[in-house]
Amino acid sequence: MTFLPFHSAPKKPDFILPPNACDSHCHVFGPARFFPYAPERKYTPHDAPKETLFALHRHLGFSRSVLVQASCHGTDNSAMIDMLKHGGGRYRGVAVVGEQVRAEALAAMHGMGVRGIRFNFVKRLVDVKPRESYLRIAQLAAALGWHIVVYFEASELADLEALLRDLPTPVIIDHMGRPNVSRGIDQPDFQRLCRLLDSRPDTWVKVGCMERLTLEGPPYTDVVPFARHLVEQFPQQVLWGTDWPHPNMKSHMPDDGALVDNIPLIAPTPALQQRLLVDNPAALYDFED
């Protein structure tokens, strides 16, 4: 299947990011000749190397970022860690690991800037593991003060909620839990997510990725009410990220500058913007001033 390449010339955002703003969800892919993709992958992305991402962050105004390992690289975190080594302390990582990973391997990653592990439950992207496997890995993460990032479809939360509540770490939910935006914020799946955030204060949610959730396309006004609701109701539990280079996009490729310009629509005050872009990621990822 053919996926779109990332936007080659995003606009300069009109919205000026606050100092120390963090892109809390992005990826680096390959280049494949140096960092091959996993043989078991279910999609092959376009190469998106660290040099391009460094340039994008300068262009957009981000001084910090969190790299999230994606399924196309499997449990080989080499490309992500290579970028951390060249990031000057301004980047942190979220790894994907195998079921038999050892504490020593995670400790080595910690020294390189990794601060979390991602569990992907989206069946079209990965094969889901037994519950005990996730709990074992989460115990190792907890010993390092890490968190667990979880990615799932909205309809899967009901079955996953018990596991998420049992994880001994903070939990970060990717992409607003992927709500069906045609059903409004009162839909049961989205309200289940809100109840989880309300009852488990160490659960966080990323409010970006509008381009994946929209039914209308840019400027994603159908997604804004969901993100704004989360930012206003849970200001200390929200993060925002570009999701660059937007893997698996087929409908259109978003302009990352335009995505940044949407931030004031979901975080309309300077105080909310500071929480979303600076204070919350700093609390999770121990960035140095």
Keywords:
289 residues, alpha/beta, TIM Barrel, eight-stranded parallel β-sheet, 8 strands, 36% helix, globular
What does this structure look like?
The chain is an alpha/beta fold and 289 residues long. The protein has one domain (22-285): Alpha-Beta Barrel (TIM Barrel), CATH 3.20.20. The protein has eleven helices and eight strands. It has helices spanning 50-60, 78-85, 103-112, 131-143, 157-166, 188-199, 210-213, 224-233, 256-261, 263-266, 270-285; strands at 22-26, 64-68, 91-95, 114-120, 147-151, 171-173, 203-206, 238-239.
Topology:
Blueprint: E1 22-26, H1 50-60, E2 64-68, H2 78-85, E3 91-95, H3 103-112, E4 114-120, H4 131-143, E5 147-151, H5 157-166, E6 171-173, H6 188-199, E7 203-206, H7 210-213, H8 224-233, E8 238-239, H9 256-261, H10 263-266, H11 270-285
Parallel strand pairs: 1-2, 2-3, 3-4, 4-5, 5-6, 6-7, 7-8
Helix pairs in contact: 5-6
